[in-house]
Design a protein that fits this description.
The structure is a homodimer. The first copy, chain A, is globular, with a radius of gyration of 25 Å. Chain A has 14 helices and eleven strands. Chains A, B: GO terms for molecular function: carboxy-lyase activity; pyridoxal phosphate binding.
Chain lengths: ~500, ~500
């Protein structure tokens, strides 16, 4: 079947041909997961242009069998990938997949519906509203952010999209009062630990780059943003005739896993009529465990909260939950109502309660992401997912303790979740050389192909980040990377010791 | 395996468990495609709140077997979906899937890599740059929009994202010259046929809503935007001290399938230093056939062009190609360079040629969409894909001719691609009643469950749109919907005839 020429009478969704091709991919991926720890974690072949040279200059004229295509994936593409599903991937934050996340993604891609307006797929829109309420409840979010409490949620592709949408909502609420020319007076606030895409988002919605306040954090607050510092910055801006618009708090920053104090920042934001967004992209997943829900304390003061199930929650990319206290503020900024999307013949069926999710996001078209998150929640259950989170936290705890016990290393900031930030101590090199030493250590580890870790710079110091969270990552993989780090440190330190 | 409780020792990517769950979904979807024409095309049960009532109030505590989950999909979710893959789905524009598109999506979701910076998955970034060049070449785009000619392309999730990114690029290019406070002077131009998301995008990037020029089109130009009308609008704005920023031309508008004259509009845009974007979301797919490439004539004058393989090109959602003549203009507006994304230890490998695609889009995180489009192109080949497009065009031609031959109906605007716009003639009802008549006809057809069509309003007239493009749609399905339309027309007209 797979080898027939398809040009003449393409039947692109013939069930038999579909099942044949799809089963070949299932087998291919099962084999990939079986062998993924045999690949260098970070792509071994990093020469730009390598793949382009291997591939033909144009698309083929005639269709090819799936087995040939898969052979090319194996030979040409896999060696050039960085393997995010490897159990020894500790870089950035995890983007872990799972059998359930993949099954959900298959259902989404296979049904291939576009629930942009209610009638375009009612059950898809409604499942989304149910599943975001389920997630919000699991995280212990306040009722006012859930549909059941007058707020509501939506699944977006990324935190960046969520931030752009809420920034636009806050901006338009302000400009409705002040007039559009006041856009140059609007000021947004974040810390020096806030994700870079916040500034990108603010710039996208037209806030002048000179109106981003990047507030410095220090080790004294664990690199969390303090309400005092926010107040000082806001007061300065207000005195200059500027308008405080939006404050972004982060629970689990990218660099260090720091936690901003949501309640204090919420009170500060309210005092100045600012929109408070809580970005819990990575660490939000941990809040399904009661012992981590304290990090979201004060979320009832937030206008919006987001977290990414596609990071640490076994939900294959992409999936970002955004909850808002006032759906009206969001839809005021994002609604369109062209004729071709009006629901003829479906009015009078209780339309007011129906959600047109196109008005909750940047794009019109959208995928059926809800079924993916729903399958993950159903297949593993809250108990299974909590066990998954706790397993990684326990592993990271072990790593932190072990690093701290080795006198050559220091833990740079106390671990909060499953991210450990550490470095070789300065006393093993001149002050100037310490960064170089750690940089060499990182390079050696990654070049080995046995693990992939990334870095951060805090207070001018180069630190190594180890983020535990892979679906296949077990204690032995973390023990392995520790062994690798020790051996690489030996090697690197030897060069500095004479 | 599937029924074991998973709470205790979740192994989310165990290859055996993965293969078991995934094969169950393949079988489920193959059965779905086999039976999809038995479901009412538009969701039968449109009562908001129906699904919420059927589902539990919270996520389950314990994991459940896949077979139970699929049983619930069958019972609770499928009846509430509008079936976009039904051969009798003629609404909006198609969003057709295919075995190859699905296989590509499985590879993307299964490998689950995030190629946001080069090192995070070099082969994924590079395959993307290759595949957008392949697509551009197939469409006959000018060299300057391809990497091979100094431009370049990126895969986004939707046209809306592409429009937001290019608007931001155009805006920042202008504001670098004029200063940020001039944002209130920037004017964007489109026609009354341009997709509503263009206005949404312009508003998102901070263009004042009062600076959107919606230029009226008429039947004289086939509802295409004329250069004369653009010039008149621009001259008025320039005289008022405003700054023309961006002109959006559409090849294949949503309402009527109209085509704006790209070359003339490009010349006009150049005259005023405006960014010209060509939105070929739907009809761009047709340009793989030489007989349709004329619609993109003049694209060498465009700053950017976009089209959606996820519409009519057998590439399951989501996938939008965006090509730009000046990648630097795009990345100037969208770049970020935080420490945690810097590529330590990979410099000196020719990094300048490597692409960090995060700087070509709104979000940081991104899916490996390139492999999906690549599998579609490989599996079906250009010959197969052209046959697919031509089959739909031929079918739509038959439908147009048949409707025109029935004296009760009129074709409202000549068909250009696979979209036919028609209505019951006015003489069968009083002028006021004609719209109501067609509205009733539409409602009757959709309520039957045997087909789903949507509508548009042009020159105050309510018209019915029939967009051919489903992966399973054959001539017999179009003949069926014509029969249904005739029978429904008989029924509706009978009520008006006395």
């Amino acid at each position: 079947m797979g080898s027939l020429p398809l040009d003449a009478s393409l039947r692109p969704l013939d069930p038999e041909a579909f099942a044949g091709d799809s089963r070949a991919i299932v087998d291919f991926l099962a084999e990939y997961y079986r062998d993924v720890d045999k690949y260098p974690v970070r792509a071994a072949d990093l020469e730009p242009g390598r793949l382009r040279k291997l591939l033909p200059e144009a698309a083929p004229e005639h269709g090819e069998p799936m087995e040939d295509i898969l052979e090319d994936v194996r030979r040409d593409i896999l060696p050039g990938l960085t393997h995010w599903q490897s159990p020894s991937f500790f870089a950035y934050f995890p983007m872990n997949g799972s059998a359930a996340g993949f099954a959900g993604e298959m259902l989404s891609a296979g049904l291939n519906v576009a629930p942009f307006v209610w009638v375009a797929s009612p059950a898809a829109a409604e499942l989304e509203s149910v599943v975001v309420d389920w997630m919000g409840t699991l995280l212990g979010l306040p009722q006012r952010l859930l549909f059941s409490g007058g707020g509501g949620g939506v699944l977006q592709g990324s935190t960046c999209e969520a931030v752009v949408c809420t920034l636009a909502a806050a901006r338009d609420r302000a400009l409705a009062r002040l007039g559009h020319e006041s856009i140059v007076k609007l000021v947004v606030y974040a810390s020096d630990q806030t994700h870079a895409t916040f500034q990108k988002g603010a710039r996208l919605v037209g806030i002048p780059p000179s109106n981003f306040r990047v507030i410095r954090t220090t080790s004294a607050s664990g690199y969390g943003l303090t309400a005092d510092d926010v107040r000082a910055a806001v007061d300065r801006d207000v005195a200059r005739g500027l308008v405080p618009l939006y404050l972004c708090a982060t629970v689990g920053t990218t660099g260090l896993g720091a936690v901003d104090p949501v309640r204090e920042l919420g009170e500060e934001a309210r005092r100045h009529g600012m929109w408070l967004h809580v970005d819990a992209a990575y660490a939000g997943s941990a809040a399904i465990c009661p012992e981590f829900q304290g990090t979201l304390d004060g979320a009832e003061l937030a206008d919006s909260v987001s977290m990414n199930p596609h990071k640490w929650f076994l939900t294959n990319a992409d999936c970002c939950c955004l909850w808002v206290a006032s759906p009206g503020a969001l839809t005021s900024a994002l609604s369109t109502d062209p004729e071709y999307l009006k629901n003829v013949g479906t009015d009078g069926t209780g339309k007011p309660a129906a959600i047109d999710y196109k008005d909750w996001q940047i794009s019109l078209s959208r995928r059926f992401r809800a079924i993916k998150l729903w399958v993950v929640l159903r297949r593993y259950g809250a108990v299974g997912l909590r066990a998954h989170i706790r397993r990684h936290v326990t592993t990271a705890k072990w790593f932190e303790r072990t690093v701290a016990a080795d006198e050559r290393f220091e833990v740079v900031v106390p671990r909060k979740f499953s991210l450990v930030c550490f470095r070789l101590r300065e006393r093993f090199a001149g002050d100037d050389a310490a960064d170089e030493l750690n940089r060499e250590l990182l390079t050696a580890v990654n070049a080995s192909g046995r693990a992939f870790v990334t870095h951060f710079v805090v207070d001018g110091k180069f630190v190594i980040r180890l983020a535990v969270g892979g679906a296949m990552t077990e204690m032995r993989h973390v023990m392995d990377v520790w062994e690798l780090l020790q051996a690489s440190a030996d090697h690197v330190l030897r060069r500095y010791s004479y």
